[in-house]
Design brief:
The protein is mostly helical. The chain has 24 helices and five strands. The strands form two sheets. It has a three-stranded mixed sheet, sandwiched between helices. Strands 1-2 form a two-stranded antiparallel ribbon. Strand 1 and strand 2 form a beta hairpin. The two termini are about 40 Å apart. The relative contact order is 0.11.
Amino acid sequence: MSATLSLPRWDLTPYFPSVASDELSSALAELDDRLTRLEREFAERGIEEGGPQDEDALAFAIEELNELRSRSRLVGTYMNCVVTTDTRDADAQARLSVVDTLSSRVGKLLTRLCAYIGGFDLESLPGSGLISDHRYFLERAKTRSQHLMSPGEEALAADLRLTGATAWEKLHSDITSQLEVEVELAGGSRRLPMSAVRNLAYDPDRDVRRAAYQAELGAWRASQVPLAACMNSIKGEVVTLCKRRKWDDPLDEALFGAAIDKQALEAMTSAAKSFFPVLRRYLRAKARRLGLTRLAWYDIFAPVVGEARTWRFEEACDFVATHFGTYSERLGSFARQAFNERWVDAEPRLGKVDGAYCASPRAGESRILMNFKPVLGSVSTLAHELGHAYHNLCLANRTELQKGTPMTLAETASIFCETIVRRAALAQSTDEDKISILEASLQGACQVVLDIMSRFLFEQRVFVDRRARELSPDELCEAMVWAQSETYGDGLDAEFLHPYMWAAKPHYYDPASFYNYPYMFGFLFGLGLFTRYQSAPDEFRAGYDDLLSSTGMADAAALARRFGVDIRSEEFWRTSLDTVRADVEEFEALAG
């Protein structure tokens, strides 16, 4: 593995030479021209609410929107990649604003198509060909058509979103990515980007962790007014539009988008709540290991051994690719391709957004943003995001309208790949290393069960209260602490929770609501699939890639049945959680 991979920056030049390039300008102009032509042809063919049921017009619209969305995805993903690695780049921000306007026009055409599909008798449509190949899209479009406002209102809502939720989301990203924090450390005061301050939560020195935590809370407090305005505005817009579109509440709209129903959600959350005491046992065992009465928030990510293994990025790449290869040659080779072609931007720096994501500019290709730390958790993050990239590879032969994967299923490959790497690290460990590897795995489980549930409870409460009025920063903090108390319980010191997690997490500022429970779904669904893989590896491999290629072509329950899984049964979720229970028990024994 080349030394140039040490905390690399990704290569975006296969898409466009630069933000200022003639190639990008041409692509934007071509997209604009194509949109203008298609807007005119939609009107001429009556592709709108109440338009004549014409199969040729429907096939035309499907074909054209597939091409249009492919072009829009390329420029949109490219610009988002540029901006999220440096939100201070004014020229890129300006170009992104142009792309957002074009994307809004694409969205309006899709809404018009959904309204048009609402007038069709789907049973009378052809049983083969382009229309038949998009049957699932058509079924969901027909359902969505029942929750549309008038065409004029939908067009206005799309236009206003650019200066509404999209603008507020961008403001949150700009503020948080450019936030610098003064931290008092033993060697004196240091001014660090927020992402670097949050990384200090992994420091073995408790004084460093505490100082970073206090400095972080102070920085969020100083920025709480504009961030609360972002939150209130986005959630207020969602509440208003849900009511006008005849959704009972934002959760119902989110469940439709996630391609699951309330029965599945309730089965999963019920199983998770019954498991809270087990994860609290892990937190108490970790506290004992660290010589503490109880963990504070800033101890959640503390290392449990004095000399835990550190990972160079090159080592992480080799480890991931090697163990991906134990699952299949295709998966292992794909990981090495991603590293060799510089798909990963791993370096934390000022102006770069925190966290991690995977985006797909073109079919079968991806770009991964992360903020690498020399710990096993970051190795798992790398494997997780590469799982998303592999999912994108499996979707490569599908059309854009067939790729509409809900978040619940979007986490399937990422959790599966992360589990491969975690289990490999555990299997190769000595007794001395085992406790730190188990601890890293249980950290992840806590995040996607306890913490994700706290975020879900918080968002539910915010939506209820936001119907009546805006919420102050203090009220948002109080709701956040309440939600964390409900899930972490006696596993953490109640005096040291994180009241500003609502400000830190970008998921709340996505115009799509409840960007939280799908992570738990993906985690437990992925664990359940991994258990089936272990039981019958060859049989599992034969159907898994096809499952990933079909995540935009059936709902979650139908796809799960391919592997004998009933997601509406609490038993399935309990079985997945039992794999975590075994890790907790082993950790307790080792922690003493």
